[in-house]
Specification:
The chain is built from 34 helices and 34 strands. By secondary structure, the chain is an alpha+beta fold. Helix 33 links the parallel strand 33 and strand 34. The chain is elongated and about 160 Å long.
């Protein structure tokens, strides 16, 4: 090249000078490229690591928030809130809640570590605790380790209602997590090592509120952090980090406390603050061990839910720049190498040009002119000179070859473009098919019709080479088999053997069991279902999947024997679309079922009843026959719920529903209206005798004993009947009249059936009016108490009074209990009335005390409905607290019939009253059938002889013997005896002779007002 420069050719010199300028320019560009590219790569690496760290911290916090959110949804469960409300009601009725909680807490803390006391056992193993443990187990089953170390629930006073394991104390209201959760709705604690459960964990407290947004309790969840540490530890295995050896990381709380670190971190407090302000920062730091390191501080502040604050954790990652910037160094070295090679090549190329450029220009000009006339086949002459013209000739020659090559490549591109156009068209057709199937899903057609049309759409594509024969199977969960639901051009020989295919059998069953597409291009051993002379064919079996659940299989058969990717793509997309539509349609069917069928019993509800009843009426109009409505409820069902709980009531309702279904025909309808009310709709009967037989059958079937936890319930029912067209021409009217007939049947002592007649309306209206008047009387204070004195027969002094209710009606005057008590008991109002009587009597007793009357026992009668309520003892205790009445002055009277209904429950209630100091006497003694055999077991304080024996004591030797026996037996049991209904001096003298202790009756005084009673007492002094 130096020789060429010395020769002095002008063109060569100019080219050489231009080349030197280009070289210098190239070196400048190269240096600039090294700087820019290196900086960009560094920023890319930093951004990449920041993105990875954001992903990790987001994954970690979402993981923790999901754990919290799961239990926040749990707190909205109405059943859970009901259990907590029941606990709050119990505590509301306590006189001193704090003392009660502290007392239980002391017992709790004093119990040995491994000893479970009865109250602990009740809290750990109650219904709500079982639910919590189930949630705990499900989380462990799902993730393979204990997610929640402990879960407990408190009421609004901080007392534990339920828990998964024994805690250190029973009282939680003084704990910081409880106070913050109550005030702010949620508490998320700091990470730390829990000595009790030996795990690294955090405490989360979530306030529980009812549907009125009132605070009712708190749920505490201890969430283990083992999974967080495992997630961070597994970052080492991440494909983006596995090449690094000089890398450490850790996660910190917002106060700088280290939750986990793979190695000792160089934590800079000022950088922590900056990271929490900006969400993420990166910077280069000096490290004694590694030198320069890239440090990234990343936090995640996205709100997962508006009610859950982020955990605010910080992820710190430190990488040695020697490792992390190795790509930058390689890039710089590569660019320098390229520049050196480019310089050498440029010098060589310059020498080459300077030697061939001198070739004759004429040949080159002629060839170029021909070339300019679009003659691409012309040959550019190869000029042998080494001057500039020769070089130019070679350049033109190379240009012509490149143009020819470009034209060839352009032809190939055009050909590929045509092929791509065909692919685009197929993709367009595929999208149209999917769109059509989706639109079809919104039509009101069943799943079978939908699948039939979907098959037609698939086979309508002209380019679909898989064939035009196929079917769709749906998976039957009950039988565990695939059932053919839709088909198109399917061989007749295979219809019967393929109508039901076992999972794992033949190609379709294999696709379902493996949960993957299966393709065969010939008949092999996997074809378990074939027929004689079956032709060779291609075969697609595509599972219809919803997540990991198999819903069915698409089976397509064709004559071709090769696999086509577009066909496969179409079938997979159709399978996904069909899966979505099937799930939605099944969901719609479930919603429709819930709207028309009773959730507990599974029989039609009120909405479906009216639809079928109106249909039955329309059929009766058309065929000129009759429709009957049988309306009935279960006698004394409320008592089962009150005494044994709603679980027992639910069992009764389910069994009654099944028995009713056995009594009717398939064309008839059984419906549950709600509670214990049922309706049967039947038509096509010829005579009322058929209805009579049906009613008798129903009453006998329901009356059969129902077993529940060792107890047998005997259920009776009363049936009211209305008939179309005699009693009405619409469902609403027929139902109302059947209801009226049913109430009249119940008034006849139950277990009967009555047909509606017009006279029944008057009785029902009178009964409803009386019920309404009783409720109004209670609200407007029309009830009053009269008091009948009780006399000590030895001292002849007044020792107590029996409170007896009267109704001071503004129109009809004084009404006695026999006119309204039975209705009050039947409707349940007696419970409110009974509580009013006890409270009023206790208040009056305290007023007498203030007026200077000596302390007297106040006796109050208790109704069956009131005594059998689970909260009866608590209600009485609350009344005593409110009225400040000494419990020893209250005496409750229950009849012998009430006491023997459930002996074990009666014994428990009597013991509870005795522990409080309240006396309980047995009223109307001697009128029952089993009282003598159970009397020793029942801890009564007094026996009251029924007035029926006292009336006959003068004239009947049997009555006298019974009274004497009762008195002697009571004295042997060390219980006093009181006789009621004494009206004559002779009766009194006989009772004194028999050593009776106390007495009351008209001989002394009839029931009188409070003022008259005080006057009576003072006159006796």
């Amino acid at each position: 090249m130096i020789k060429a420069f010395i020769i002095g050719k002008k063109i060569s010199r100019k080219l050489f000078i231009c080349f030197l300028s280009f070289s210098l320019f190239a070196w400048g560009i190269g240096y600039f490229a090294i700087t820019i590219c290196g900086k960009a790569l560094e920023e890319s690496i930093i951004a990449h690591h920041l993105d990875l760290d954001r992903k990790y911290i987001e994954l970690i916090e979402h993981h923790m928030m999901d754990r919290v959110a799961g239990f926040m949804d749990f707190t909205e469960d109405p059943d859970i809130q009901q259990i907590i409300d029941e606990s709050n009601v119990t505590f509301d009725n306590l006189n001193d809640v704090s003392s009660y909680i502290e007392n239980i807490d002391k017992q709790w803390q004093q119990a040995p570590e491994n000893v479970i006391t009865p109250i602990m056992d009740e809290l750990i193993n109650n219904h709500l605790s079982s639910i919590l443990k189930w949630q705990q187990r499900q989380a462990k089953i799902r993730y393979g380790y204990d997610i929640y170390s402990e879960v407990l629930v408190t009421n609004k006073y901080g007392a534990i209602v339920a828990q998964t394991s024994k805690t250190n104390d029973y009282k939680q209201s003084d704990e910081q997590w409880w106070q913050i959760a109550k005030k702010q709705g949620i508490y998320i604690g700091k990470a730390g090592f829990d000595d009790c459960y030996r795990v690294y964990s955090i405490v989360v407290g979530i306030a529980i509120k009812d549907n009125k947004n009132n605070f009712i309790g708190v749920i505490k969840v201890i969430i283990g952090l083992d999974t967080i540490q495992s997630m961070l530890h597994e970052m080492k295995g991440d494909i983006s980090h596995k090449e690094y050896t000089k890398w450490r990381f850790g996660i910190l709380e917002n106060d700088g406390k280290v939750i986990y670190a793979s190695d000792k971190l160089n934590v800079l407090p000022n950088k922590l603050k900056q990271a929490f302000l900006n969400n993420a920062i990166s910077f280069i730091n000096d490290d004694k061990k590694w030198g320069k390191v890239l440090a990234t501080y990343v936090t995640h502040k996205e709100k997962y839910r508006t009610v859950i604050k982020p955990f605010g954790w910080l992820l710190i990652s430190e990488h040695s720049t020697d490792e992390i910037y190795v790509q930058v160094n390689r890039l710089e070295e590569g660019i320098l190498l390229v520049l050196v090679i480019l310089t050498i090549l440029s010098f060589i190329l310059s020498y080459y040009l300077s030697n061939i450029i001198s070739k004759p220009l004429s040949l080159l000009t002629e060839a170029v002119n021909k070339f300019s006339d679009n003659n691409l086949d012309v040959d550019i002459p190869a000029i042998g000179s080494e001057d500039e013209i020769g070089q130019l000739s070679k350049a033109f020659r190379g240009m012509s070859e490149k143009l020819k090559s470009s034209f060839n490549r352009l032809s190939e591109v055009n050909k590929k473009l045509e092929n791509n156009t065909e692919e685009i068209k197929k993709s367009y057709d595929l999208q149209n098919i999917i769109s059509s199937i989706l639109k079809l899903s919104f039509k009101e057609i069943d799943i079978k019709e939908f699948l039939d049309i979907a098959l037609d759409n698939i086979f309508s594509l002209v380019w679909f080479t898989a064939g035009s024969v196929g079917c769709i199977f749906l998976y039957d969960e009950k039988t565990g088999t695939l059932r053919m639901t839709a088909r198109k051009n399917f061989p007749k020989e295979l219809l019967e053997p393929c109508k039901e295919v076992q999972v794992g059998k033949c190609l379709c069953g294999l696709a379902a069991s493996r949960k993957e597409l299966i393709y065969k291009d010939c008949i092999d051993k996997d074809h378990e279902i074939t027929y004689e002379n079956i032709p060779e064919h291609g075969h697609y079996c595509v599972p219809i999947m919803s997540k990991e659940k198999v819903l069915g299989v698409i089976n397509v058969v064709g004559a071709i024997h090769k696999k086509d990717e577009m066909d496969k793509r179409l079938l997979l997309m159709v399978a996904d679309t069909i899966a979505t539509v099937i799930e939605r349609k099944r969901s719609d069917e479930k919603v429709e079922y819930m709207a028309n069928y009773d959730e507990l019993t599974g029989i039609p509800n009120r909405a479906l009843l009216f639809d079928r009843l109106n249909q039955s009426i329309q059929h009766s109009k058309r065929f000129n026959d009759k429709t009957a409505v049988l309306y009935f409820d279960l006698d004394h069902f409320k008592g089962i719920n009150d005494t044994y709980g709603h679980d027992a009531g639910d069992v009764v309702l389910k069994k009654v529903s099944k028995r009713l279904l056995r009594c009717i025909r398939d064309i008839d309808t059984v419906s549950r209206l709600g509670g214990d009310e049922f309706v049967v709709v039947t038509r096509g009967f010829k005579t009322t005798d058929e209805l009579n037989e049906l009613c008798v059958r129903i009453i006998k079937e329901i009356a059969r004993p129902i077993e529940y936890k060792g107890k047998a319930f005997s259920i009776n029912t009363s049936i009211g009947i209305s008939v179309y067209p005699n009693d009405g021409d619409n469902g609403q009217l027929l139902l109302k009249k059947a209801d009226t007939a049913m109430y009249n049947a119940k008034a006849s002592d139950g277990s009967v059936f009555l047909f509606y007649n017009d006279s029944m309306d008057k009785h029902i209206k009178e009964r409803d009016k009386l019920e309404e008047d009783i409720r109004y009387a209670l609200e407007s204070n029309q009830f009053v108490l009269h008091y009948q004195p009780q006399i000590d027969l030895k001292t002849n002094k007044v020792i107590g009074a029996e409170a007896l209710i009267r109704w001071q009606h503004p129109i009809f005057g004084m009404i006695y209990p026999d006119k309204f008590i039975s209705i009050a008991e039947e409707t349940g109002i007696i419970v409110e009335i009974g509580n009013w009587v006890i409270k009023t009597a206790c208040t009056q007793s305290m007023l007498w005390k203030k007026e200077g009357v000596a302390l007297l026992t106040m006796a109050v009668n208790v109704a069956s409905n009131q005594f059998q309520r689970y909260d009866f003892v608590d209600n009485v205790s609350q009344i005593l607290l409110e009225t400040k009445t000494d419990p020893r002055l209250l005496e409750l009277e229950i009849t012998e019939r009430i006491s023997i209904k459930d002996i074990e429950t009666t014994i428990d209630v009597l013991h509870r009253f005795n522990s409080i100091g309240i006396k309980v006497s047995i009223d109307d003694f001697g009128t029952g059938y089993s009282s003598l055999s159970y009397l020793k077991r029942l801890p009564f304080n007094k026996i009251k002889i029924d007035r029926s024996f006292i009336m006959d004591i003068q004239h009947s030797q049997d009555a006298l013997t019974i009274v004497k026996t009762i008195i002697d037996m009571s004295h042997n049991l060390k219980m006093p005896v009181i006789a009621e209904g004494i009206e004559t001096t002779e009766q009194l003298e006989l009772l004194k002779a028999l050593n009776c202790d106390e007495a009351q009756g008209y001989l002394f005084s009839k029931p009188v007002t409070s003022d008259d009673f005080i006057k009576f007492v003072k006159d006796r002094i």
